[in-house]
Structures are given as C-alpha cells and as structure tokens.
Specification:
5-stranded mixed β-sheet, two-stranded antiparallel sheet, 10 helices
Length: 359
C-alpha cells in the first residue's frame, strides 16, 4: 500500500494510518461479537473514506478489499443460529463498502483533475505574463523607431518605402495590442482584477480612447455624438478607457475601410450609455450569445480577420468591474454591430457616500 507523497504533514501521515488500523480492528471485533443482529461491518465505510486521505488509488482498493474480507470472516466467526440475518447483514455491508469505494475514487479522481487544470492555468498565465513583458520592451523600440522612420521626408516622398514603413508600423501596433490583451488576460485570471473607481467625466474617457485608437486606424471615420453636461460616473477610468478602446478597435477591424464608426454618449433612464456602432459584418444569433466568452471567435472570421478572441472578454470584465454592463446589438449578419456600455448614475455626496438617483 503506497502512501500519498503530497500529504502535507509527515507526522499526520503516520498517525492517520495507525488510527485507521485501530478503527478497523475495533469494527472487526464489534462485528464478530454482535451475533449478526447488527450490520456493524457497514462502519468499514469510514475506514475506506479515511484511507482516501493517505493512500493512492491502488492502496484504497486494497483497504476496501481487506474490509470486505474481514466482513466475510466475521460472518463465519460469528456464533449465531440465524444464518439468514447474518447473510443479509454481510451482503449489505459488502455492498456499502464497495459502493463507497467506487464513489470515493471517482470523487478523488475528479478533484485531482480539477486541481491539475487549475495548476496548469496558473502556470500558463504566469508564462504568458512573463513572455509578454519580455516582448514589450523590444516591441516598443521597434514601434517608436518605425513611427519616426515613416514620417521622415525621404520615406514620405517614396511611395514604396512609405508603404513598407506604414505596414511595419501597423503590424507592430497590432502585435502590441495582442500582447496587451495577453497581459490583461493574465492579470484577470492570476491576480484578480481590482477596480480603482473614481468620479470621472465620461467625455474624458471617450476622448482618450478615440485619440489612441484613431492613430491605429486612420482610414476609418470616427463620428462623435456626445451629449452636453454628462454626469460624473463612479468608475475605474483606466479600465473603462481600455475597454472602450478595445471596442472601437474591434469595430474598425470588422468593418470595411473608410466606413464610419459612430460613438455616442447620453443619459437614458438614469443610466449613462456609451455606444459604439459600426457598419461591419454584424453578428449572428450564435455569435451574439457567445461574444463575451473567453477565446471565442466566430467561425466565419477565423483565417480572415486576425484576433485572439480575448478582446470582448477583457472589455466585458473591465466594464463589469466598474459596476457597468456590456450589451451587444445587431440586426444580423452584414448589418453592423452596436456595443453599449451601461453605467448607473449616482449622486456625488461630499462625505464620499453615493446615493443612486431615483427615477
């Protein structure tokens, strides 16, 4: 019988088997002395459950088999005149021990698989985070250098050189965005997302996101329709700006060049609504239901439009961490998509308390 090597305390790993053996002996003595009127051997179930704590799978099976042998032996050693009752008790005990062993091993197997998957996820996220950080430094140098190169007079005058330089810059920016997504995903899964909320003007968030993303997609026209005197919202401005930038970038990637991306912000039913509407590929019913799932990508886009399937999941997580919700609307395939951020509006009280406005 092999003891589990990962048992946390060496002293406990010795005490528990000794206690288990003592209990087994006590059950055997009780079963033999009860004249078969009581199915005392059913108590061997406790022995099996205890063995799961310190034995590997084969050891648990051996312990269970030993309990069954002791149950049969007790039947023959019991001095009773009613053999039928003894047979019934023995059968009940054997069935209980066998069924308990099967279920205990199944549960332990599932628990081990779940633990292995959790450890694999942690290792993967740590690896992704480490590799991504290592890539950011040289990529920043490449991006900065090619941006300067693309704007030099000699390159601007030469159409071929300008095309190459702009292509390198666009691909470097795309790679930088993909690495940022990997870092955000690792941050969410391994460390947990901590939102730092502050009273923020939604207009500032929108302007920052538009300025950052418009440089990556200069061929798209971004139309802003932001209402006047928008109320302050209690959100994490960094996370919301990143989420909005992600949605604008998605709108550009999934819509034709030179198409319009319309961004609006307004107050409806005591809620601040920021929406991004594109003229792109739209959403099917299946895509609409799975859009915010991790690593989800529509089958019709795989191989045609680059992406990792993390953007919408990250955006949704960031918005939820600020107390909002993300909604996806689309009339259908090829008819464009509208993504909405919905935040509740609260009153800003001087003593740092918030009171939700009543309708």
């Amino acid at each position: 019988m092999k003891l589990k090597s990962h048992f946390p305390d060496q002293k406990s790993s010795i005490v528990l088997p000794i206690v288990t053996v003592a209990i087994t002996i006590g059950i055997f003595a009780l079963d033999t002395a009860t004249d078969s009127e009581v199915a005392a051997a059913v108590l061997y179930v406790a022995v099996v459950l205890m063995s799961v704590r310190f034995c590997e799978r084969r050891g648990v099976i051996l312990v269970s088999s030993g309990c069954m042998v002791l149950t049969v032996l007790s039947y023959f050693l019991t001095d009773t005149g009613v053999k039928q009752i003894g047979l019934i008790n023995t059968a009940i005990s054997l069935l209980a021990v066998g069924l308990t062993t099967y279920l205990a091993l199944k549960i332990e197997s599932i628990r081990y698989v779940a633990q292995s998957l959790a450890e694999a996820d942690k290792l993967r996220d740590a690896l992704v985070g480490s590799v991504s950080h290592e890539l950011r430094t040289p990529l920043a140098s490449i991006l900065g250098g090619v941006s300067i190169l693309a704007e030099t007079p000699a390159v601007v005058k030469d159409q071929r050189l300008a095309l190459v330089a702009n292509g390198i810059r666009d691909e470097a920016m795309r790679l930088n965005n993909d690495i940022q997504n990997l870092l955000d995903a690792a941050r969410i899964t391994s460390q947990g997302l901590q939102s730092r909320r502050d009273w923020t003007d939604a207009t500032d968030i929108i302007d920052a996101a538009v300025e950052r993303i418009s440089r990556r997609y200069p061929n798209h026209r971004i139309d802003l329709d932001v209402g006047r005197n928008l109320p302050l919202v209690h959100v994490d401005p960094v996370l919301v700006e990143q989420a909005l930038g992600q949605i604008i970038a998605n709108a550009a990637r999934y819509s034709p060049p030179a198409s319009t991306i319309k961004i609006t912000a307004s107050v409806e039913n005591q809620q601040l609504i920021i929406s991004v509407r594109d003229e792109g590929v739209g959403l099917t019913v299946d895509e609409k239901g799975k859009l915010a799932e991790r690593f989800f990508r529509g089958q019709r886009h795989i191989g045609k439009i680059s992406g990792s399937g993390l953007g919408m999941w990250i955006a949704n997580t960031f918005i939820m961490s600020s107390g909002g919700k993300l909604e996806a609307l689309s009339p259908g395939e090829g008819q464009g998509t509208t993504i909405r951020f919905v935040f509740p509006i609260s009153l800003h009280i001087d003593d740092d308390e918030t009171v939700t406005q009543e309708g």
